[in-house]
Amino acid sequence: MIYFWAFVVGGLICVIGQIMFDVFKLTPGHTLSTLVVVGAILDGVGLYEPLIDFAGAGATVPITSFGNALVHGAMQEAEQHGLVGILTGVFEVTSAGISAAIIFGMLGSLIFKPKG
């Protein structure tokens, strides 16, 4: 049943993004930013972790999870280190994913030749 709910929740997040494109005529950047902020707000009010527990990958794979990770890391480090923890927490939690994207993007650019 976890696969079903992951599909439904992840699909619903994608449908919301598509509606933002089609109905509200938002650009990809505005849509991306909005979904990240929504994920951050949901984590800030304590609703995103229960969503992850319920939907698993359906809530951790979409871009809303990035906003969740930013706020979650900042709040976690703020409890331990105060105001400085807010800044360090954001970088500590997200650094692995961002580093992987940069490294694999660079490797891809070295291996493959762009068309054009």
Automatic annotation (TrEMBL):
Keywords: Membrane, Transmembrane, Transmembrane helix. It comes from the Bacteria. The keyword ATP-binding does not apply. The chain crosses the membrane at residues 6-24, 83-112. The keyword Transmembrane helix applies. InterPro entries: Spore_V_AE, SpoVA. This is Stage V sporulation protein AE. It comes from Bacillus yapensis. The gene is spoVAE.
